[in-house]
Specification:
alpha+beta, five-stranded mixed sheet, 18 strands, FHA domain-containing protein, Cell_Proc_Reg/RNA_Proc, phosphoprotein
Length: 240
């Protein structure tokens, strides 16, 4: 049985055939469950080899008609959604970034029979930031392409005579990362293997000359807008 099948079977236990007939013309509970599951999987991110952080707050946006119908069930639907999401997270090895919360809200921008899900954490909406750690110092990758080498014109300069002036580049699109060697004299290793290019996951070790650079992806929470109108962010203390 697939994971989506498990969601469907779980909802069948909570929703009898009479309930399904009642809402045949609008949103179906299984569609809500599937949308929450997709949001959970999409926003989950690897922060170490042993930890995947997922958002914990989910707001399900429905049309006014669908929201009234679903909220009319009381806690039956949301209780079942909590159970299914927790079971799916456990099966996938996800850790939540705060207490699990799922709420249904009416939204006049959502058409009847459709669903939109937003997610975040109890500390704020979760985003993901790539960093390189060199000799215990963390360097945030603030652009899509970061050149590493011993030259002063590199984006990240390392004092290593075994590295080339522009040795390698790290590409980061906000979700995925890759290392490419830029034709260096001594080559580049990823987790001890010399390669010209390789995808990067959190905790990957990139070796340039005698210097090890540790690539990590860390979660960042956006705090609510301040009184002055500026948004602030902070990095969670999630380290392996």
């Amino acid at each position: 049985m697939g994971l989506l099948d498990s969601f469907e079977k779980g909802l069948e236990r909570a929703v009898n055939s009479a309930f399904a007939k009642t809402f045949r013309s609008g949103i179906q509970p299984v569609e809500i469950a599937s949308a929450v599951r997709r949001e959970l999987d999409t926003k989950a991110a690897v922060v170490s080899r042993d930890r995947i952080i997922a958002p914990s707050n989910f707001v399900v946006h429905l049309s006014g008609e669908d929201a009234a119908a679903m909220n009319g069930l009381g806690s039956a639907l949301t209780d079942e959604l909590h159970t299914l999401v927790a079971e799916h997270a456990r099966a996938q090895g996800y850790s939540f970034a705060g207490p699990l919360s799922i709420t249904l809200e009416a939204d006049d921008k959502v058409a009847t029979g459709t669903v939109h899900v937003d997610s975040g954490s109890s500390q704020g909406r979760v985003t993901w930031q790539a960093v390189l750690e060199v000799d215990g110092r963390r360097h945030t990758l603030t652009q899509a392409r970061t050149v590493v080498g011993r030259g002063s014109d590199a984006d990240l300069t390392i004092a290593d005579s075994g590295s080339s002036r522009k040795h390698a580049e790290i590409l980061w699109d906000g979700e995925r990362a890759m290392m490419r060697d830029l034709g260096s004299t001594n080559g580049t290793k990823v987790d001890g293997v010399k390669v010209r290019e390789a995808p990067l996951t959190s905790d990957t070790v990139i070796t340039i000359g005698r210097t090890d650079l540790v690539f990590r992806i860390v979660p960042v929470a956006a705090r609510p807008r301040s009184a002055g109108g500026d948004d602030a962010t902070r990095t969670f203390g999630v380290m392996p």
